[in-house]
Amino acid sequence: MKVGFIGLGIMGRPMCKNLLKAGYEVTAYDLYAAAALDDVVSCGAVRGTSNADVASKSDVVITMVPNSPNVRAAVFDKGGIAEDAKEGLDIIDMSSIAPLESKKIAEDCAKQGINMMDAPVSGGEPKAIDGTLSIMCGGPKAMFDKYTELLNVMGASVVHCGDVNGAGNTVKLANQIIVAVNIAACAEAYSLSTMAGVDPEKVFEAIRGGLAGSTVMDAKVPMMMDRNFKPGFRIDLHIKDLNNALDTGHGLGTPMLLTSAVQEMMQWLHNNGEGSSDHSAILKFYENITGTEVHR
Ligand code: NAD
What is the 131 CA–ligand 1 centroid distance (Å)? Predict the structure, then answer.
């Protein structure tokens, strides 16, 4: 199986390297990240010269780019995947994008004889490096079955969420809502306890094993206490996910009260120069109001 990999950012680069380590023949390309392309080529990837070039050399192409317009561009722009795709090419889009747009792109691909599955991931850079991502797939079950083994190289959990294209991205939106609200709850609670004069390390020690404990608390509160806001997952990418969640919720008539509150916090952070910080920097929204810093 010849694999193409497009988008070698924080996530794509280690995911591509894991495929190479597992012995897959991979042709890789990124529109901008020249150093990342050099890196994966030094690990054994074939250097792609465009998205179309990757498609021409592959049976299946993985895309890992920021948002819906980037996926559409990677497939349909001049020099895109569709320009040089073999008959019956499969695309696995692992980016986190709007579910409706994911469905539309799959429909447009089908018109050109290209099959598509959405397979967004959760777990961030550390799990991309370890090959232990959670992968949520949407699209025909037969395509899921065909690529389960490939996806297992990058993930510890690979779940078929539905036969409809976009089902994986719907599940990813649920994930992003829960993560965002959980981080904001931690930021609020740790600001409160710091202002009340309790050492945040004691708060962490006392509650992380109880009902309030979470993977989010374990990953993000130590970053807050260390004042380490290096991404990780950038505020700007999380704003993109929450905007996609709000659009989807508004379309369906679902109240999105908590999501919109955290989206506003993140938007404020973006406007104040924190768009490229890790999403744990939601803490800074509270600190700006309270004038009190949380630290060890
Ligand atoms: P990133 O911005 O670091 O990387 C994206 C890469 O895509 C960039 O190198 C960019 O040059 C490339 N690119 C953009 N448009 C392109 C095109 N048309 N053709 C070729 N390459 C193109 O982003 P990331 O953090 O790696 O995230 C990628 C996706 O994974 C996003 O949808 C994000 O929401 C999702 N995600 C990220 C994380 C995380 O922790 N970073 C976790 C889970 C999911």
Answer: 17
Residue of 5, 11, 31, 75 to test ligand 1 pocket, by largest number of atoms within 8 Å of CB: 11
CA nearest ligand 1 atom 38, residue:
124
Q: Which residues are catalytic?
A: 172
CA of 119 to the centre of ligand 1 (A): 14
Which residues does ligand 1 sit against, CB inside 6 Å? 6-12, 30-33, 51, 64-66, 70, 73-74, 95-96, 121-122, 124-125, 232-233, 237
What's the chain's length in residues?
A: 296
Q: Which of 29, 64, 65 to mutate to test the pocket of ligand 1 (most atoms within 8 A of CB)?
A: 65
- Say how far apart CA 67 and CA 162 lie, in whole Å: 21
The pLDDT profile of the chain, 296 residues, written as one tens digit per residue, is: 999 999 999 999 999 999 999 999 999 999 999 999 999 999 999 999 999 999 999 999 999 999 999 999 999 999 999 999 999 999 999 999 999 999 999 999 999 999 999 999 999 899 999 999 999 999 999 999 999 999 999 999 999 999 999 999 999 999 999 999 999 999 999 999 999 999 999 999 999 999 999 999 999 999 999 999 999 899 999 999 999 999 999 999 999 999 999 999 999 999 999 999 999 999 999 999 999 999 99
Residue 12, both tokens: 């794509």
